[in-house]
Amino acid sequence: MEIRTNRLTIKPFSPTDADAALNLLTDSRIKETYILPDFDKREDAILLFQRLLTLSMEERRFSLFY
Length: 66
What we know:
The protein is mainly alpha-helical. It has helices at 18-25, 28-31, 42-56; strands at 3-4, 9-10.
């Protein structure tokens, strides 16, 4: 399922989102305000992204508010 507006797209992750997601997951500024693990290596962040990708494919993970 995908929801699009002029400024926002809500959709499950795809493998092509990996680089952008990894940049966010390892950004020190984001870690200041959002609880993220301290990754010793990028491969650890990849494992988290793969888990998020799998979870995002489950339709029950979405909530729609009208």
